[in-house]
Amino acid sequence: MRNARVLMALASSAAMAMGGLLASAPTASAASCSGAYCVYQHTSFAGAHSTLWGHVEDLSGHSYENQPLISMNDSISSIIVSVSGSDIPVRAYTGKYQGGKVAWFYAGSYSNLSLMGMNDQISSMYW
Ligand SMILES: [Ca+2]
After folding, report:
1. Closest CA to 36 of 93, 105, 120, 114
2. Domains and CATH numbers, the chain
3. pTM for the complete prediction?
4. Once rounded to an integer, what is the mean pLDDT over residues 63-77?
5. Contact 79, 88 (CB under 8 A)
6. How many angstroms does the Cα of residue 19 sit away from the middle of ligand 1?
């Protein structure tokens, strides 16, 4: 009985240490995506955002789901592609209807589209 109590105490302090590590890790992010992919107005998954499942052939006709007055066209700066879409990359184009330059996004978090020359340039997306 006494040994069990000691083990319990050790386990809970280990859990607290883990929690502290997770909370302070620089790579930890509160952002998560419940769709096939999510797009964000700003870098680091900030600002207006939308959860998407399929094609958007002309982003100029679409605003962010939580900011109806802000167009998604030429404004997306970060993207999360969820694990559920891991085998199929999301294709993002600088022109509508697959025009212009294209970038492929496999499952993962892309916090700054400037790194691939796509910041504020995406006009259509396919998955
Ligand atoms: Ca932007």
Report:
1. 105
2. 37-126 (2.60.20.10)
3. 0.74
4. 97
5. no
6. 33
